[in-house]
Amino acid sequence: MRYDVVGLGIASLDLIGVTEEQPLFGAKQSLTGWHEMGGGPVATALATLARMGARVAMTGAVGNDGYGQRILADLQTVGIDTQAMHVRPGTSHVSFVLAEPGRDRRTVWWHNDPTVLEQVPLEHELIRSARALLIDTHMPQVALHAARTMQATGGLVMIDAERVREHTLELLPLCNLIVVSAEFARQATGVVEPWEAARVLHSRYEEQLVIVTCGAEGSWCANKGELFHTPAFEIEPLDTTGAGDVFHGALLYALLRDDPIRLAIRFASAAAALSCQGLGGRGNLPTVSEVEALLEPA
Amino acid sequence: MRYDVVGLGIASLDLIGVTEEQPLFGAKQSLTGWHEMGGGPVATALATLARMGARVAMTGAVGNDGYGQRILADLQTVGIDTQAMHVRPGTSHVSFVLAEPGRDRRTVWWHNDPTVLEQVPLEHELIRSARALLIDTHMPQVALHAARTMQATGGLVMIDAERVREHTLELLPLCNLIVVSAEFARQATGVVEPWEAARVLHSRYEEQLVIVTCGAEGSWCANKGELFHTPAFEIEPLDTTGAGDVFHGALLYALLRDDPIRLAIRFASAAAALSCQGLGGRGNLPTVSEVEALLEPA
Ligand SMILES: Nc1ncnc2c1ncn2[C@@H]1O[C@H](COP(=O)(O)OP(=O)(O)OP(=O)(O)O)[C@@H](O)[C@H]1O
Ligand SMILES: Nc1ncnc2c1ncn2[C@@H]1O[C@H](COP(=O)(O)OP(=O)(O)OP(=O)(O)O)[C@@H](O)[C@H]1O
């Protein structure tokens, strides 16, 4: 296998402003920090995997602007193969993130040109050369084909879903690993309690493992008819941006090295908690030994 | 004279996000537009002058980052000579502006590295080669010397002051044209009413012309013992960012072609109003004939 994981999804550029003041609409306020960082759920999950030593590639598209060039350069810097990334006319996916250290709150304003993500071709050979595929919900057409391709080779398919969009629910039956936010679980099931939503999703797709993540409240996993909770690690978060993305990457890493599921989720939770101690999604991507130090303090 | 106006101040990069939704802290919201545009009060005033056909140069500094390169390229594109712009280690001045078309509200979060603006050298010859100097309050040390240099040649010195900072009040006696926001006038005088603050400032600096701008409420001018109000033009603003900057540039333009003061302020108000119909500070910089069409409808 040439790659451990291939990701298909959006890669973005996050501009992170750090404020010590109480932000106020209509005001002109100075920031104490300004950081530019690659972002996007799939891209950050792949960056996590690369940081842990996995071989990863990404497919998708950026716009033909300066932001797109910076996104690609950033993916390459963190060790992601970008040969299957396409450049399309239009503006890239870009976000301004207002981070308020000390408060567990962040505000995101994002923009993209949807046409950039249209007609991204299926990278058949690339997908067949990997052990696992990670998809999001932004390019459902090609994601459907990609998931079927991966299913046919017997590899793992993980989905990261934040919101129910068009065709999102058609993707779920094709995924072995459905790892979603509490908000998505609520939208997809109509059930408010995350643990109950996890159970409902699992009974809908019986073969699949379902995890619903709940921020500092940890996560609920429904697997093989069983439901269990994994608490989050107690940390002083600096910025929780991307916790879910790092969780996805670390979970795939642990599953690909055959950790049992409960251990794999603990590993992912520890990695996500560590990432909350840095700015943005990639300000503190942990190594395997850093995660293991948190799991088993000496 | 090689230049009509030399500007000494900050040049920034404004990233403008346009939202149609009610913005909300703690949320993740999509923007309907994302624009990158040069900004900064002095830079936008110079861009206005250049648009009107004046010969202008800017001195100051940007950081040695990608933003600095984009700021310089943008100044050049609008016709500003940047040979006296310096590149210093550190991050450039950059802002995220949240624009809400339809509501006269914008929110600005800005960041810079103050060391970038330290020790900007005095461009003695450049200043002596111009008819007027425009300064802001960000580099008071070099601005003091620049203003004295210009005074000695008998040229005009205009200051754009938004906020009372260190040494700001030492700059005022060196300026022929004190054109400030209502907020600055209040801070500098302790007087709440803009017309009264204009009178207080004018009696403090008897030789100087004082204008206090009040957004859609127009402006108050105190000159040669006289006080008068100029109403704003009634327009449907799209984004009022930079109205004051365009007002400064257009006012200098009109005064340099020897318009009487009341006419010059009307010219500046018309230019500022037109600029409010475009996004950001430079989304709709008017030409002289566009301003004149608003002043004297056919
Ligand atoms: N404040 C926190 N403290 C400790 N761990 C956290 C915190 N926030 C998140 N985590 C860990 O990260 C996991 C995923 O977080 P979350 O549920 O917020 O993901 P998400 O909603 O997809 O977030 P994002 O959009 O930021 O990626 C949680 O299950 C938890 O293990
Ligand atoms: N909504 C508006 N409609 C019409 N004219 C306006 C409007 N806002 C501003 N102006 C014109 O621009 C002039 C300067 O505006 P303002 O007082 O807001 O400057 P400022 O506070 O320096 O703003 P900025 O920081 O955006 O440059 C006003 O005196 C007025 O003539």
From TrEMBL, chains A, B:
It comes from the Bacteria. The keyword Nucleus does not apply. One of its GO terms (molecular function) is kinase activity. Pfam families: PfkB. SUPFAM superfamilies: Ribokinase-like. Residues 5-287 form the Carbohydrate kinase PfkB domain. Keywords: Kinase, Transferase. This is Ribokinase. It comes from Candidatus Chloroploca asiatica.
